[in-house]
């Protein structure tokens, strides 16, 4: 086995770990990993990502279910709607230029990182809301998130978890577990669309999937032991850096360099402001946000 493949397999285990811990984020790292480290074309990287994330999420969902953290009815309804959107997104993605897909994926990475760094609110009282959300709302949200999944190869965990927590009023551990069921359903539907125009390397698929599943099982065990807020903030910074790097590599020369420099300046300003705390000039803006 060549060194790049060994490196990809090892890093894929880390991707699985994030899925088990956070209920999402796997494809946010998987697509750039396959495209830039394994050297796969963008469309093939997205198709392989859908296989890996789908299989890993399914295993993780059953692991969470054993702890009572999967709401099957809500997940199946949301996932069924998402599968339709993912299939259509996968069909469309097969006919979109690779550069456009990677730029769209990078923009999703930046948006995801921003949502992660801001954090998510919990339902009032941290408990479970009573009543069921309207069926049309579940189907509409599932369809929209599914279309994103199929188009850019992202399982949408960081879209699904907030939707489940806010729509269904699920506690965070249950939202994370249920999201893995939804991600698995949507990923396999998106893959079906991509297989109409892409032929993945199935040997590579098997190797990285096995590594991701192993990482996911470890992540599931650690989910109740690692402080979620600190982990999510650190992971959010990493995803933001990755998104900016992908944009810098895919955009034309002047724009990529300017974007990277601007992002670095904003990151440095944020770090300095964090060190200054209440003395930061931007503190009033943050408080009023």
From TrEMBL:
Broad class of where this protein is predominantly found: membrane
Domain of life: Bacteria
Transmembrane segments: 45-63, 75-93, 138-165, 202-223, 230-249, 255-276
Subcellular location: Cell membrane; Membrane
Transmembrane helix listed as a keyword: yes
The keyword Oxidoreductase belongs to this UniProt entry's keyword annotation: no
Keyword field: Cell membrane, Membrane, Transmembrane, Transmembrane helix
Membrane topology annotation: Multi-pass membrane protein
Family (UniProt): Belongs to the 4-toluene sulfonate uptake permease (TSUP) (TC 2.A.102) family.
Protein name: Probable membrane transporter protein
Lineage: Bacteria, Bacillati, Actinomycetota, Actinomycetes, Streptosporangiales
